[in-house]
Amino acid sequence: MNLLSPIKDHHSERRLFIGRVILASVISTILLGLVIARLVQLQVFDHELFAQKSQGNRVRIEAVPPIRGLIFDRKGRVLAENVPAYQLELIPEQVNDIEDTLQRLAAISLIEADAIPRFLELSRRGQQFKPVTLKFSMTDEEIANFAIQRPRFPGVDFQPRLVRHYPYGELFAHAVGYVGALNTNDMQRLDSARYAGSSHTGKTGVESSFENELHGFAGYRHLITNARGRQVPADSSELLDSLPIDATPEPGNNIYLSIDLDLQRVAFEALGERRGAVVAIDPASGEVLALVSRPSFDPNLFAVGMSATQFGELQNNLDRPLFNRAVRGSYPPGSTIKPPLALAALETGATNLTRKSACIGYFQLPGDEHRYRDWKPQGHGPVDLHDAIAQSCDVYFYELSRDLGIDNMHEYLTRFGLGNATGIDLIGERPGLVPSREWKQNNFHGDNRRWYHGETVIASIGQGFMLATPLQLASMTGTLATRGSRMQPHLVAAIEDPLSSARRMISPKSLGNVGIGNEFYWDNVLEAMHDVLQGPRGTARAIGVGAPYTMAGKSGTAQVVSIAQDEEYDEEELEERLRDHALFISFAPFDDPRIAVAVIVENGSSGSSVAAPVAKAVMDQYLGYGNASTE
Amino acid sequence: MLRLSETHRMLSPRSAPVSSFSSLVRRLNIDGPLLGGVLLISAFGLFVLYSASGESSRLLINQSIRLGVALVAMLIVAQLPPDFLRRWTPWAYLIGLILLVLVLTKGAVGQGARRWLDIGIRFQPSEAMKLAVPMMTAWFLHDRQIPPKLGHLGIIAILIVVPTFLIASQPDLGTSLLIAASGIIVIILAGMSFRLMMALGVLAVPGAFGLWHFMQDYQRQRVLTLLNPDSDPLGAGYNIIQSKIAIGSGGLFGKGWTNGSQAHLEFLPERHTDFIFAVLGEEFGLFGVLGLLVLYMFVIGRGLFIAVQAHDTYSRLLAGSISLTFLVYVFVNTAMVTGLVPVVGVPLPLVSFGGTSMVTLMAGFGILMSIHSHRKLLPH
To answer: Does ipTM surpass 0.95 in this model?
Structure first.
């Protein structure tokens, strides 16, 4: 720009502007002309047609929700079904004072008073002729009670609908999960066309992770209503020609789990009232045979809706029944990791089969006063690798850890699947933790960033930072049983199209091999695991002796490190909750493993005497000796 | 402020008091014709709204209060001289941008989007941006060469694109496109060369087609869903079918106030908000609809007249943009309800229920009034 002429030429600028305004006016006129032309088309030329459409019958489109797929166990017994129930509905446009009506319904205890604001919001939002569900499942008593009062509640009525039902209640609460009422978050997440007319969606477990298969696709139909809004037969109207045809809903697919109902029940009952989890896997395929977390809850409460008080009780229960311990509970694995560590030590040459430790009940690092204690105060005497596993000698592993080192421990435990989510077909699985130098470097500050020798020592008995889920331990046990082959655990065995009955089998997925090729190492470590249960000095020989089949296992006892500061316990509870966790892993039969089990009993004190019997009961049942042992 | 207008009145050749009312109007910097047009549209709107809401007096009172608040806002803005507005424009724009970033990070979530800031009252910064963007564009061009040079256009493009992008990611595609339009209108009014416009247009068309061609099916579906939130037989298809029946059945003279069967039997969704034009068409017929459109054209025309009469670049461009953006609202809504363009959530200005945009609209008219009454007496 010429520096001498910064002064603008206002006249030419104004002329230019006026030109542009004229242009804009012309374009505006054309645009509005288009709209006017359209209006003339609709209101003059097509007036007859539209007048007829509005004068005579009217068309309303109604969504038809699909029927949700069923869930079966591996033998075809139904675990989640749809049963008819009466639900209480309110049609906003037929109610004069919605708030008053809701308050009167609360007064006769048909709805919860604290749910009124939510129902008000729901009835304001949707289309006014669409019913709002106030109660998903009414008891016979409630139906009878309401039937008498019905004249007092115009616009409120009960309607037969299908609701989800879990016949085995709390037995499958964590594996199958539950459906719950669609909330605003779900509405934003889900495809509105597919869920039009639906009231529920899967919230946890298989119900949630296979929502896409189970839900199906909504259909729709045209309802013809007369001028007063009453429905009339659809075929009596010529209006239908101008509308898209009806679409029948596509039902959701049925799902077959690999879980066995009887085995699940045995595992559930064997845990009893204690807090804990059981996971049983078929080592060859990774199929989950049982998945139990206790305490549990009744998933039907979520399907039919519960009061805020009921939910609060579940949510705030100190025993956390809603928490799926089997896939989300992260526990120190304790001595259960000794077999994979032994294999790692043999493979890397950190130990050999003849090396012996003199166990005197404790171990000290050179130049350190601290005594790392064995669980047996007087010590095991001279032990080799076999004895160290069978008798669970800690001192042997403390010594071994110095030669193995944390880097190798991390490498091999990771190969066995610890520290990473297994990828099971359930949402919310936790990855556990296998500590390493790098992990410590990234997660601590200052001096704590470096890795200490003592931390390697306690890691060798599965304590310290190390964490694993019961599912990971079951999967690791399966890998031991198959001598190194890792299969991805999964719950869903097959998906079935309900219309054609065509089944899609879910094929086992290999996660590779842990890469320890020397069969001799496997022979010795597995033999030691066998002797845990069926050897002369095994820690769990009381469980394995006299069994009609061979088995292998490993007990574990994990210290409860700390209690969160913000949780309150009374003194008796505190004492109970400070006890060690009891763990047990096992597989059977020894020569041809068909089942691998991991059990954890929170604060159960002793792996071999508390957790091992649970594992035994599960294996008995699966291998066909069920009645002999449970009675 | 008052003293300032007092001086204007004294200086104005037509300052002799005609009547006490018109002198009050002038003293308050009100533009009579513009106010008249706006009030007529609003009154018409209240009639239609009463019918569309199922004769709900609650809704009517609610809307009247919003209207009152918006008129007060208009009156206040009309007292701010254009020079004052211009001085504060960059700050308004900057604060608007900061608020938009705050919305994205800390905003309240509603219906799947973050659009509001909760500061005692719920406040939607994208509304303020509807005025701040054309103001900023006009401010930038105020003391620069007109028609703008290519480099300046580049800077303006950034000034427009940043808020547009921020609002689009709330996500609120409808509003972001309208805001982009208000800025682009300023550049066009400033005399961007036709060659450049054509070049951009020619580049944009195959670009869009190319992009569409290379998209995956699900991506296309996403674009469609973005433009048209419920593109399904249970959603928008239904809306359009019903609104066309409503308008078409209205004929030349309509079914009469509160007699629209489509609207009253609740076949018409969103009938008191985005689809209120259909109720108007059903109950007042083609003549009623044309009446409203004429009122709109009068207001837009008066706005453009004020723009042409304005004495400086900033006022001129801003007034032009406010008037033409108003036209864009009217067009997009009526075209959407009559099924000419896909459904984007744009309300019918001054008529649809919902006051978030009412204050912005009225403040815009306040700016027009201020521009007109604060004209400097420059030699022509």
So the answer is: no
